[in-house]
Design brief:
The complex is a heterodimer of chains A (468) and B (192). Chain A is an alpha/beta fold and 468 residues long. Chain A has 18 helices and 19 strands. In chain A, the strands form 5 sheets. Chain A has a 5-stranded parallel β-sheet with strand order 5-4-3-6-7. Chain A has a 5-stranded parallel β-sheet with strand order 17-16-15-18-19, covered by helices on one side. A 4-stranded parallel β-sheet of chain A has the order 11-10-9-12. Chain A starts with 6 loop residues before the first helix and ends with a helix. Chain B is an alpha/beta fold. Chain B has one domain: Aconitase, domain 4 (Alpha-Beta Barrel), CATH 3.20.19. The longest helix of chain B is centred in the last third of the chain and has 12 residues. Classes of the chains: A alpha/beta (468), B alpha/beta (192).
Chain lengths: 468, 192
């Protein structure tokens, strides 16, 4: 019998067109290239200038999400897209996809949505695949046991032209999560706690594998929330072994394998999990049962505290001091004293149906506090339809929140949805960097439950006050 | 791309830890469809006031930064978004190298593909460079060595293949395209 291997090593080995040598990186075949309007135009331009084609349009899927408006009238109503350069970028993607024969799920397509949400919905995200996209949250797809990572635009061009990438083999990092999350504590809280433990650069050079009881107990949407934020700890990819939950999710998705091909695929997927006795370059252990709802207080996702806790007092530390100045928060103060002006529910981290259901459970029959602006943005048009069938949009609207069309929206403030200077936003997105949600915006990252509870009270609030 | 062998320059120091790519180029500038001109938007929210005027005390607006080709940054520069607009903006502004004790993966990859050298140095050298802004350094890419004042020099790790591409001014895509037969063989093997 061969040496025990990790899941990452198996997927990597299966995609080596040429292995790494002392002089050259490995040539890795890419099974699925997802692309969008923001990081593709310069890659298409490169192809054009060099007279190259998209080698495998059948393995390439384009959509638009980052710069797209979320206001219904701008998406479907014929109103002009308010940001002219965004409108131009959207048109450019349409032109490029038509010219290069790439399938595009365009602005009004019923299957459009955030690229990392529609891949799994369509069933093109599958275990054992290599998946790339010009977006760092491509790590999301690792929840299926795929090796999925973000790339820059030059590499987008490489994949378009050759369906391959030159890669140095990363190291492996096991994150063992024992026990179960307690009621009111969500996968978002777990991943924030992991980032707080590993640090924002602790995963640099590694591929994470999330393992253990708490991970196995999660549904696919929850696993995606975990893998999504791997990059916030510096890891380009995070993976979770596929299991019956994975197979049940993928069964009968529009583009998942059918009939005999399905059985064959599942048989292969069952071989992917890390072998007993395989070793990782690094391992940490986290006890899920010890966690509380978590929320960030600073300007990177590793600056995180339990919701019943206080902002630490590390005055004198330059990163901490700069973060406190930017955030306008007081060292040592309870985090629940932080005010809230904006609440954003959505993004590739927490914009799936389960996230909206979780927020709706907290908001049902409640009102958003006076002066709080709450925006709920489904991660895809499919999520939007499902949520509307369940009446979730009515719960949000009755609570005083806005209900929009799908897209990246306020996660990164490049589409018209922004947080104003100095305002505090409790956001279910993935980055609390300075200016991420708008110039001078102050972001506190949290779960949908915490975001919803904070909207009701108008200050940072423990969601367990509402759901236990 | 022009071959790069030696870079000599004074340094500009930005000591902040975790300078993420949202700071290097804020997302609202990513609706561009070209690579050119992003130097104007480099560090936009740190560099300009609300009226769009340069903040005189921000390092890149100061006279000593003029003509500097080497940026010394706090640990973990380039974390966050995969936007290649970050190295495009740094290059468009005039930088040819970024030195830190830790550089985020995707940014490091993207930099190498744009002739922006990501130089990782040991903690002690990093601390010295942070404490001594404006010193003249020489980056010798061929020998992977960073020469500091007083004849001190340290080596830095750089992927041999990337170094070959940079010192010869060839891009990695040419190499990938030359592997077409191997890629075809792989594709037929996968579909067998």
């Amino acid at each position: 019998m061969s040496d025990p291997k990790t899941m990452f090593e198996k997927v990597w080995a299966a995609h080596e067109v040429l292995p790494q040598t002392a002089d050259t990186p490995a040539v890795i075949f890419i099974d699925l290239h997802l692309t969008h309007e923001v990081t593709s135009p310069q890659a298409f331009a490169m192809l054009k200038s060099r007279g190259l084609k998209v080698r495998r349009p059948d393995l390439t899927l384009a959509t638009m999400d980052h710069a797209t408006p979320t206001r219904t009238e701008q998406v479907f109503g014929g109103a002009p897209i308010s940001i002219e350069s965004a409108a131009k970028q959207i048109r450019q993607l349409e032109v490029n996809c038509a010219e290069f024969g790439v399938e595009l799920l365009g602005l009004q397509d019923s299957r459009r949505g955030i690229v990392h949400i529609i891949g799994p919905e369509l069933g093109v995200t599958q275990p054992g695949k290599t998946i790339v996209c010009g977006d760092s949250h491509t790590s999301t797809h690792g929840a299926f046991g795929a090796l999925a990572f973000g790339i820059g635009t030059t590499e987008v061009g490489h994949v378009m032209a050759t369906q391959c990438l030159l890669q140095k083999k990363p190291k492996t990092f096991a994150i063992e999560v024992s026990g179960r999350l307690r009621p009111g504590v969500t996968p978002k809280d777990l991943i924030l706690a992991i980032i707080g433990t590993v640090g924002v650069s602790g995963g640099t050079g590694y591929v994470f594998e999330y393992r253990g009881e708490a991970i196995r107990a999660m549904d696919m949407e929850q696993r995606m929330t975990i893998c999504n934020m791997s990059i916030e700890a510096g890891a380009r990819a995070g993976m979770i072994a596929p299991d019956e939950i994975t197979f049940a999710y993928l069964k009968d998705k529009p583009r998942s394998p059918k009939a005999a091909a399905w059985d064959e695929a599942v048989a292969y997927w069952r071989t992917l999990a890390t072998d007993e006795g395989a070793t990782f370059d690094k391992t940490i252990e986290i006890d899920a049962a010890s966690l509380e709802p978590m929320i960030t207080y600073g300007t990177n996702p590793g600056m995180v505290v339990p919701i019943s806790g206080r902002i630490p007092d590390r005055r004198g530390d330059a990163v901490f001091d700069a973060a406190m100045t930017y955030m306008g928060l007081t060292p040592g103060a309870p985090i629940t004293a932080a005010p809230v002006n904006v609440v954003f529910i959505g993004s590739c981290t927490n914009g799936r149906l389960g996230d909206l259901q979780a927020a709706a459970r907290v908001l049902k029959g409640q009102r958003v506090a006076p002066g709080v602006h709450m925006l709920v943005v489904p991660g895809s048009q499919e999520v939007k339809r499902e949520a509307e069938q369940l009446g979730l949009h009515e719960i949000f609207k009755q609570a005083g929140a806005e209900w929009r069309e799908s897209g990246c929206s306020m996660c990164l403030g490049m589409n018209g949805d922004t947080v104003a200077k100095g305002e505090y936003a409790v956001s279910t997105s993935n980055r609390n960097f300075e200016g991420r949600q708008g110039i001078g915006a102050r972001t506190l990252l949290a779960s949908p439950e915490t975001a919803a509870a904070s909207a009701i009270r108008g200050r940072v609030t423990d969601p367990r006050e509402f759901i236990i | 791309m022009d071959p790069i062998t030696v870079i000599r320059s004074r340094t500009v120091v930005m000591p902040s830890t975790n300078i993420d790519t949202d700071q290097i180029v804020p997302a609202r500038f990513l609706t561009t469809t070209t690579k050119e001109g992003l130097g104007k938007q480099l560090f936009a929210d740190w560099r300009y006031d609300a009226a769009g005027q340069p903040k005189p005390d921000f390092i890149l607006n100061r006279p000593e930064a003029v003509g500097c080709r080497v940026l010394v940054a706090g640990r973990n520069i380039g974390c966050g978004s995969s936007r290649e607009h970050a190295p495009w903006a740094l290059v468009d502004f005039g930088f040819q190298a970024v030195i830190s004790a830790e550089i985020a993966d995707i940014f490091r990859n993207n930099s190498l593909k744009n002739g922006l050298l990501p130089i990782i140095v040991d903690d002690e050298t990093h601390a010295w460079l942070l404490a001594n802004p404006g010193v003249e350094v020489e980056i010798d890419l061929v020998h992977a060595s960073l020469k500091l004042p007083n004849d001190r020099s340290v080596s830095f790790p750089i992927d041999g293949f990337a170094r070959h591409c940079l010192t010869h001014g060839v891009d990695e895509l040419g190499y990938l395209l030359s592997q077409d037969a191997k890629i075809k063989a792989y594709e037929s093997r996968r579909h067998a």
